[in-house]
Amino acid sequence: MFENWGWRGKTDNKRPTTPEAQEVQLIASIANADRQAFEALYRLYFGRLARFLDKMTRDTHLIEEIVNDTMLVVWQKAHTFNQTSRVSTWIFAIAYRQALKAIQTFDAAVESNFEHHAAETRYEPEHQMSAQQLEGDLNRALRALPMEQRVVVSLTYYHEMGYKEIAETMECPVNTVKTRMFHARQRLRFMLSDSMEEIL
């Protein structure tokens, strides 16, 4: 939808000095219907959102559509961004809500294979772990988690968010985030082999 918009930036004597300040400036420009700024933000966030949504939805066909829906909301609502949170927290919160809506709208049975994945991970024959096997087992275990736990793990370990940011993204109390992480870690320990417990 937005891939062909180009952005080379504007000459500004007061250029933002930090990545966060640059993102705030991009949002301000987008609020003024600056398509070049929007393209810059789109390119900046596409990969991050795609990785997050892959962990959340487990449906590759939905990812690009949800990213585009998310960025459309950013385009339409940029004027409402009031800097009470980081730009990344605001955008990830939009992506989270758009993903929930997409899952319901398209009736994507993201939890339908839970037992299959859990059993597949739990009853695999024992084997000598390599780095690739370790990563594969971990990914299967993550995909077997309930969605809300999977989101917390993804935002913590793949996007380096703290509990407060995750709570803002998911619109829930910090203690709820902590509880979801606790149960996620317990489930991962159960599904993964004893030799992996030291990394959790």
TrEMBL record:
Keyword 4Fe-4S: no
Residue stretches making up the RNA polymerase sigma-70 region domain: 41-103
Domain RNA polymerase sigma factor 70 region 4 type: 138-188
UniProt family annotation: Belongs to the sigma-70 factor family. ECF subfamily.
UniProt key word Transcription regulation: yes
UniProt keyword terms in alphabetical order: Sigma factor, Transcription, Transcription regulation
Name assigned to this protein: Sigma-70 family RNA polymerase sigma factor
Pfam families from the UniProt entry: Sigma70_r2, Sigma70_r4_2
InterPro entries, per database record: RNA_pol_sigma-70-like, RNA_pol_sigma-70_dom, RNA_pol_sigma70_r2, RNA_pol_sigma70_r4_t2, RNA_pol_sigma_r2, RNA_pol_sigma_r3/r4-like, WH-like_DNA-bd_sf
